[in-house]
Structures are given as structure tokens and as C-alpha cells.
Amino acid sequence: MTQERTGVATFKGNPLTLVGPELKAGDQAPNFTVSKNLVEQATLQDYAGKIKLISVVPSLDTGVCDAQTRRFNEEAGALGEDVVILTISADLPFAQARWCGAAGVDRVVTLSDHKDMSFGQAYGVHIKEFRLDMRSIFVVDKNDKITYVEYLPEMTEHPDYEKAVAAVKELL
After folding, report:
1. Helix axis angle, 63-79 relative to 93-103, nearest 10°?
2. Which residues are catalytic?
3. pLDDT class for 34, splitting at 50, 70, 90?
4. Do 124 and 54 touch, CB atoms closer than 8 A?
């Protein structure tokens, strides 16, 4: 049975149920399968040998998610070739592509968890009530060890961008 955690996160003050484990720095990053587009899949292994900043957003079509993705797109240019920034949401892949085109976002990789919520359940961010992923940040080193985690307690809050970027820079 999949673990459920209630009351660790909220949406506008209302409790949410997160499905999956609470990961911590030092844990091995779990594998996942997400969609690059409607036919191609991606897994953690597709980014082997890279430092991964995984920015998880509920939906790109909301204000905080939009700002979060734009911010990490700006940061991507200064982090170099050894770093990949993955933005994962439950948005459909063509909606992600449309949003990126309209927003001019071209340095982060958008991946969709819409099919089976594989990422959300493996990383403990699948919101049972909404079938979305809870806002969170994971930094994973070249050996797929998690070095930084931020689970946001409130769905509408921004992550600590500076701490996430600093965690990446410590690995360079």
C-alpha cells in the first residue's frame, strides 16, 4: 500500500493528502517515468551524470508556478552544462509546450507526470485530492543522491530560490 501523509501541506489553509514517502537529503533519488511528449517517456536515468534541479509545480498555468518556472529558466544559463533543470507538473505535454512557447522558456526541460503520477508518488508530492504534484524542489547529484529537498507547506507559496540554486552550486 502506498503511504499517505495528511496535514503536511495545505491549499489556501485547507489540508491536503500527499501520496508517497517524504524524502530527505542523503536519500537515493527514486526512479520515475514521466512524459516528454505524448509518445516519448523520460526517466531519472535519462539525466545520468548531470546535477539535477527538479522544480515541481502543480500547473504551469497558475501565477506562482509560472513565476517559479521562469525564475529557474533564468538561473539555468549561469549554471553550466553539468546541470539540468527539470520542471515537472501534471499538465499535459502539449499544454507544457504551449506554455513554454508563449513564455519564452527554453532552458528548462518540462516533463509531464499526467499519465500515472509516477514522479509524484515516488517523491511524495502527489496530491490525492487534486491529482496534481505539490510544489517542491529536489537537488540530485551526479550519482543520483538527493542533496537538497524543499517541500512547500502551502501550495500557493514560492520556494526558496536562492537556497535551491546554492545547493546546485555546491555540487559544481
Report:
1. 70
2. 65
3. very high
4. no
